[in-house]
Structures are given as structure tokens and as C-alpha cells.
Write a structure and sequence with these properties.
Layout (H helix, E strand, L loop, with lengths): L1 H8 L7 E3 L2 E2 L3 H20 L15 H6 L34 H11 L7 E8 L1 H7 L11 H4 L3 H11 L4 H5 L6 H8 L1 E5 L1 H6 L3 E10 L4 E9 H6 L3 H12 L5 H12 L8 H7 L2
Parallel strand pairs: 3-4
Antiparallel strand pairs: 1-2, 3-5, 5-6
Helix pairs in contact: 1-2, 4-7, 7-9, 13-14
Length: 281
């Protein structure tokens, strides 16, 4: 497995940023390409092909080549010290945007119950440092040109949630990030980093959004999510609703049900090719 890891991780060092903040179409392929490299590397390792013995900490490893010598502890055993496999420590996003935009969307949806988008004169988003760095800082995240940039923008995430009551794949396919009402709302938005919020991370993530209304009043929504909340993730019913929404128009109902049944029986299935066949377009 060590050989497979080193074979997979070294050639997969690639970036999808074309210039500061603007993302290329490759973003949607980076994860699948990594999975493809991992499978191919495992096949090579099974045939006896070896790779670098120090893919992370070696002289030409990831830490020196990509991170200027900064290193991270990467356990290479069968599982982490707490007994959990890495795959069960992942979570499924509720909304089709980057991780640091999930909470702002939920906060905006709560605010929408107190203020209609047409009543809003200005917005103030308060967030923590790392979220600001990844989803606000770059100027391209304010002046959106591509869907690959829009789904990384906290500004778009909040504006779209307020305007439409949801952020879905259709929000990007229909180019909502170019529409005048969205751009106007972004143009009247400020984002501040709150030290208290930054210090609370990663255990607690805060987002507070305050709307100044055209009437002169204000409306505020403040939401907090903990690591336990994130680990708990979406309920089965929420996952099924998301699956249905994301596959509508792509899978027929019968095919969608067959895929869900096969996925539920994944640990008992004798041939994973069956699942691949069910998602082949």
C-alpha cells in the first residue's frame, strides 16, 4: 500500500488556479483524476512496481516541493489512531459550494425569513479568518466571471441564498452569478473578520449576517456549527433529497432507485462494476 500511495500522490501534484482566485474547468476533474491515479497506482503496486519511498518528507517530496518545507503528520498505517478510516472522516456538503461557504448559506437562509431581498439596502457578513482567506479575499470572488469562481465565493453564496432561497447546481448552470440583482447585492456587501470567531475555530465556526433595510431598520442572523455537527452530517432523508435534486433530468427514476439500492449494499456487493454501469451515461 505504501508503494501505491507514493505512486499515486507524486504524479498527482497539480493545480487548477490559472491566476489569483480564478479557477479553471480543471477544478471539477481534480478529484476524479486523483481517484483514477490512485486506482492505477494500486494496480501497478500489485504487479510489483515500486515508487518513491519518501513521497512526503523526502528531498523531492511534497513538503519541500509544494509547501516550502512545511510538513504535516500523515499516518500511513491501516487507519488513524482513533480507529477511524479516513473515508469515514469525510462529510457530504449540503450545498454545492466550497466548505467555508456552507455556513454562510445557512445563515443567509435564516436571514431571509426576516428580510426580503428587495428590502435590503446593504449587507454585512462577519466571519472567521480562514473562511475570509479562502472565499472572500481575492478580488475575483467579488467580480464573478466563471462558475468555477462563483462556487468558491462567499459573496455569491450569500447573495444567491437571499435572492432565491437556495443555492443549487442550477444556480451555476443558469449563470446566476452574472445577473444584475445578484451583482447589485454583492456590490452593497461588506465582509469583516471577527477575532472572536477566528479564535473559536476549528471547534466552532461562526457566521453573522446583518442586513440594513431600506426602511432604516436592521435584521440579523447568527449561526454556529461545531465539529460534532459537521461529523454528524446530513440525515439519510436529506441525502436522498440532495441525490434526487442533483440527478433530476439525468437519471430516470427506476435507474436512480437501482443505484441507491446498489450503493446501500456496497459492503456486500461482489462486483463494483455494477455500480459503475448504473451511473454510466
Amino acid at each position: 500500500m505504501h508503494h501505491a500511495l507514493s505512486l499515486a500522490v507524486v504524479p498527482n501534484l497539480c493545480t487548477y488556479q490559472t491566476r489569483a482566485g480564478e479557477l479553471s474547468m480543471w477544478k471539477g476533474c481534480a478529484g476524479p483524476n486523483g481517484a483514477r491515479n490512485g486506482v492505477f497506482a494500486a494496480l501497478l503496486a500489485a504487479e510489483g512496481l515500486s515508487g518513491p519511498y519518501e513521497p512526503f518528507g523526502g528531498e523531492f517530496g511534497i513538503w519541500k516541493q509544494a509547501l516550502g518545507g512545511m510538513s504535516y503528520d500523515v499516518p500511513l498505517g491501516s487507519c488513524y489512531e482513533d480507529g477511524k478510516w479516513g473515508i469515514v472522516q469525510t462529510n457530504i456538503k449540503t450545498h454545492p459550494v466550497r466548505d467555508s461557504c456552507q455556513l454562510p448559506i445557512d445563515t443567509a437562509l435564516e436571514l431571509r425569513q426576516r428580510a426580503k431581498p428587495e428590502e435590503i439596502a446593504a449587507l454585512r457578513i462577519e466571519t472567521y479568518r480562514s473562511a475570509w482567506e479562502g472565499a472572500v479575499k481575492d478580488r475575483e470572488l467579488w467580480a464573478l466571471k466563471t462558475r468555477e469562481t462563483a462556487d468558491h465565493s462567499m459573496l455569491f453564496a450569500v447573495a444567491c441564498a437571499l435572492a432565491d432561497g437556495a443555492v443549487t447546481p442550477a444556480s451555476f448552470e443558469q449563470g446566476r452569478f452574472r445577473d444584475r440583482d445578484i451583482l447589485d447585492l454583492i456590490g452593497h456587501t461588506t465582509v469583516d473578520v471577527v477575532d472572536e470567531f477566528s479564535k473559536a475555530t476549528p471547534g466552532r465556526r461562526n457566521c453573522r449576517i446583518t442586513a440594513t433595510l431600506k426602511s432604516g431598520g436592521t435584521a440579523t442572523a447568527h449561526r454556529v456549527v461545531t465539529l460534532a455537527d459537521i461529523e454528524r452530517g446530513m440525515s439519510d432523508s436529506e441525502l436522498l433529497r440532495k441525490f434526487a435534486a442533483c440527478t433530476a433530468g439525468v437519471f430516470e427514476d427506476e435507474r436512480a432507485r437501482a443505484f441507491l439500492d446498489a450503493a446501500a449494499a456496497l459492503e456486500r456487493i461482489s462486483d463494483v462494476g455494477r455500480i459503475v454501469d448504473l451511473i454510466r451515461l
